[in-house]
Amino acid sequence: MNASLTARERARAELTAEITRSARDQLREVGAAALSLRAVARDLGLASSAVYRYFSSRDALLTALITDAYTALGDAVEAADASVDDPRARWLAAGRALRAWALANPHEYTLLYGSPVPGYHAPAETTAAAIRTSGAFARIAVCGKGGGPAPSGGLDEQLRAAAEVVAPDADRAQLALGVLAWTQLFGAVSFELFGQYANTFEPADALFDYTLERTADLLGLD
Fold first, then answer.
1. What SS3 string covers 163-196?
2. How far is residue 132's CA from residue 168's CA, in Å, rounded to a whole number?
3. Omega into 149 within 30° of 0, i.e. cis?
């Protein structure tokens, strides 16, 4: 912890971390829909009013958990991307980092990519953290030479807007292939994590590696 923080600031940071830790325990035990500030307070031996001084509502706590999870996943994917040089190796490393993080943190992955939490709407403040992972995959994808027809109409406009955020100089046809490949990877991870491969492709290591290689082919990554 930063030594320049005052004692009050350190105490607040420590209790904030304890609250979010307890909330992550609740994710594992009862799921995001049942997350409760009162339950967190009981777990920490605090009055409910004390927890509300740190998080004004369940939704504020959910937003903190979502931002933390996106940040952790983004860290993992970006570190894997930076560990190798050529685009194909980067795609494989980033994909494996995605899967490894999801398998190690299934409840956080479910919070990000599972069914929406009833009544909760993620605020715009989560966007910057969320886009780190998709942006990393997009920047790798647009290094390829996958070919294919140029997108038109509404899709072209959507891709133009997406490119401005993640890869401003990207060829939009290549970026469209990147979206296909990216969703394929996340679909494979979700199928594995949510038990859709039961009694067929368990363990899913070989299938996921095959998916990584074929999506790299689709993208024309060398």
1. HHHHCCCCCHHHHHHHHHHHHHHHHHHHHHHCCC
2. 15
3. no
The rounded Cα 176 to chain-centroid distance in angstroms is: 20
What is d(CA 69, CA 117) in angstroms, rounded to the nearest whole number?
15
pLDDT in tens, 52-79: 999 999 999 999 999 999 999 999 999 9
The number of helix segments (H) and strand segments (E) in the chain equals: 10, 0
Cα–Cα distance between 211 and 137 in angstroms, integer?
A: 15
- Identify the DSSP state of 6: -
Q: Taking every pair of C-alpha atoms in the chain, what is the biggest distance, in angstroms? A: 60
- Name the phi and psi angles at 140, rounded to 5: -75, -45
pLDDT tens readout for residues 149-203:
889 999 999 999 999 998 888 999 999 999 999 999 999 999 999 999 999 999 9
